[in-house]
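Re: weekly structure request thread

Next one in the queue (377 aa):
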Amino acid sequence: MTALTDREENIKYRVAFSYIPGIGRVRLARLENHFGSLEAAWKASPAALTGAGLEAKVIQEVEFKRPGISPEAEMEKLERAGIQALSPDSKGYPTRLKEIYDHPPLLYVKGNLQPDEWSLAVVGTRRPTVYGRQLTEELVADLVRQNLTIVSGLARGVDSIAHNAALEAGGRSLAVLGCGVDVIYPSENAALAGRLVENGALISEHPPGTRPRPEYFPRRNRIISGLSLGVLITEAGEDSGALITASRALEQNREVFAVPGSVLSPQSAGCNRLIQEGAKLVRDHRDILEELNLTAMGHQAQMKELIPATEEEAQLLGCLTAEPSHIDEVCRLSHLPMATVSSTLAMMELKGMVKQVGSLNYSLARELREIYRVGIE
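Done, posted below.
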């Protein structure tokens, strides 16, 4: 059995230890190194825990909490709730998050956590102006169309606007919570959280059932920035928690972006100061793509979507031009049966490769014509 498998089998004990206050990344690593496995650490006596270097206060917490926690039962609860527990050695643990110094020893995930290599955090004030709302919606929609995943914190204001804008644009969004993934805060975002589970994920380092506490939110900001290539602050005052996320991003060698605002607006004072201190000034989404060296990303993703998936699609593309052609003509040129041409064109239309112009007349979609034109030039 490999070391990696051993670590994966220790997930249930990581889950169990996550319910004990004071057992974080450093102490968990200390226990695992000392005992050889978290199973042995979980079953260790107070004297043995002392020998492993745990402080008396933490050992008291272990002794108080441990009798009421069953690692096996906790894993069953997670499975019933559709919640996944990931350690840094798990296959699905975000690679970018592992790069930061203080990465969580365990992530609880509800939803679909993909590699999400192109992720951008979008945060800001809980009390956005009309200007802040509009800029957040427009920037997020444009970024999502370039296949970026939007990361935020499900808070009121800019966070919620960013999540909603990403989903409305047909993209993915990840929400990092300062509570358990089964405890939605604020409660008015319950419907939004449900949509995020379907088109992204809810993420927390806290076990299910954990209620929100003020000290949890600054800590979760390091995860928001850690998951991302950079952090965009669309509107924030001088005392906004979004500035903490910007600070964490700088510590993690992530890019920081800010949208400028009126010098007369208190809600833009934080963004203006960030720009003054060196944050990238953002006028539109292209400023972000250029700074992250992702300007070709949208074109590449578009090309990938429009590459023929079947031999029939390739044949039909060769028969179509910018000028509409009737389906009978397409059948004649392609030498394919009518049923095959009809079903293939219908699928190609759904994929945005062709468009139907009038009754059973088809032409290449504008986007595909542009790509072919650029390729020829």
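Residues 1-5, 369-377 have pLDDT under 50 and may be disordered. Residues 3-71 form a domain with the DNA polymerase; domain 1 fold (CATH 1.10.150).
Next request, please.
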